Amino acid sequence: xxxxxxxxxxxxxxxxxxxxxxxxxxxxxxxxxxxxxxxxxxxxxxxxxxxxxxxxxxxxxxxxxxxxxxxxxxxxxxxxxxxxxxxxxxxxxxxxxxxxxxxxxxxxxxxxxxxxxxxxxxxxxxxxxxxxxxxxxxxxxxxxxxxxxxxxxxxxxxxxxxxxxxxxxxxxxx
Length: 174
Fold this sequence. Notes:
This protein has four helices and six strands. It is of the alpha/beta class and about 170 residues long. It has a six-stranded mixed beta sheet, sandwiched between helices. The chain is globular, with a radius of gyration of 16 Å. Residues about 165-174 have low confidence and may be disordered.
């Protein structure tokens, strides 16, 4: 059993603001993150009857109101780029109440922790932010997607102890 196992991941991070904050500080390379709440295995119901629900591995909020969905995925199909979009939209749809201005929509981070480099460029981290195609200026809508590749990060640190896929993970891919 390792941290790629959903049950262990939930036990370690559920309610553990300090550990979640440390994890996000390392992955996002930021020292200004102060986590104020963490919930493991949070389910979001689709507002559409018969629509797809999601279960977030970790949902955290920091002291500035930013939200973080951390998904740990052993298999590439669990971190599909369309899944990142879907999870982000499900988080965003719950941030505003009726009558609130769109400027009150908080930043959100969709963080996938992957065992391997699913994009094949040999990088330990891939950060996705939107921009204007014509000018390459940033389109700062507050939505951020990050893929963290444990295998590549360990290799860059000179470590060869990446958890192997034992096939016994209960990692959800829903």
